[in-house]
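Quick log. Single chain, no ligands specified.
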Amino acid sequence: MANLTSNFTLEELVASDTAARLGINNTPPPQVVAELQRTAALLEQIRTLLGGLPVRVSSGYRCLALNRALRSADTSAHVLGQAADFVVPGFGSPLAICRTLAPHQPALQFDQLIHEFGSWVHIGRRTLAPRGDLLTIDNAGTHTGLF
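-> predicted structure:
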C-alpha cells in the first residue's frame, strides 16, 4: 500500500465496490495522485480537529467512467482527486461533523462541505479561490446551509 500521509493510503482513496463490480479501472493518473496527496493532507487536518479519531473514507477518486456510473456530474471534484466522502463513527453524526468543521473553513480552505443524505460528509478542495460552500443534499435536492 502506498501511503499518501501517515493515516491515508492511495488504495483507500481509490477503492470502489462499484468499480470492482462493473469492471472499471479506477487507477488514477500521476497528476491525480498528487491531488489525492493534498486531499489526504486535508483529511489529516480533519482527523486532528475531530480529536484524532479514525476517518473512514467511502469515496475518494473516481475516474470519469466510475463517476458516470454513479450518476454524478462530470465536473465533480472526485474526478480530479480533490474530494472525499467520509464518516467518523467515533465522533458522531455526519451533521455533527459538518457543524464542527464549518467554522474552520479559513484554516481548512475547503471549497465545499456537504452534509449528504444524513449519512456522510463530502469535503471538496479547489486550487484557486475556494468558495467555502456549506450545503445539505437530501431527497428534496441541494440546499444552502447545514441541516
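The CA atoms of residues 15 and 26 lie 8 Å apart.
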